Amino acid sequence: MLRHFTIQILLSIFLLVSVESIYAGVISNLHFDIHTKGDDKDSQEPLNIQILKEYGEILYDSGWIGDDQLFPKNSHYEWKAPGPGHPIRFPILLEDCSKLKFLVEKAGDKTWEVSFRVRGNNGQLVLVTDTPIVIFGKKNLFDKENPIRVEEPLESSGGTMAHHFNGRNVHLFEFTCSSER
To answer: What would the DSSP string read from start to end of 79-112?
Structure first.
């Protein structure tokens, strides 16, 4: 009897560890920190936030948000996912971190200077470190056929070199992923 009891305990521990290890690498929620710098973000110019994997697979899409909000300069806002009407479409795994991209698009032509940070699992993971300040709405007169261009890595406020693609009203950042706050 003691032998069966010991086997049951060992099986329970094994199953618990197995289930825990399966879910340990899943990013269950996202926090998008938006730090407005120079100009206000006009209330008529909404944002769309997406998490992409490799070849454009959309894991998360916020839809157009903030169209009724003015973000004053030098302010901080946070957008959380999942939320009502904004589910995480497919599991986001830490093991895929090097394949993930963070895309932000702004409607309208008014310029807006901003930096971002993306955190996961209730702030325990930093998925995209503080980005350099980027400018939305500034016309790219030199590249009308291909508006998205690769920028040289820029140093972010945290000292991390950030790779980023600039497309006037679309900015795309690579995930950096760390467990630091």
So the answer is: EEESBTTB-B-S-EEGGGGGGEEEEEEE-SSS-E
Q: What does the pLDDT look like over 49-81, one tens digit per residue?
A: 999 998 779 999 999 998 888 888 889 999 999
Residue 129 half-sphere exposure toward CB, CA atoms < 13 A:
16
Nearest to 104 by CA among 93, 115, 95: 115
Single-letter amino acid code for the residue at 68:
D
Residues 6+ apart with CB under 8 A from 6: none
Q: How far is CA 134 from CA 24, 61, 68, 76, in A?
A: 33, 21, 22, 15
Q: What is the CATH number of domain 27-174?
A: 2.60.60
* Encoded tokens for 29: 């929620």
Over the stretch 23-54, which tens digit does the pLDDT of each residue have? 458 999 999 999 998 777 888 899 999 999 98
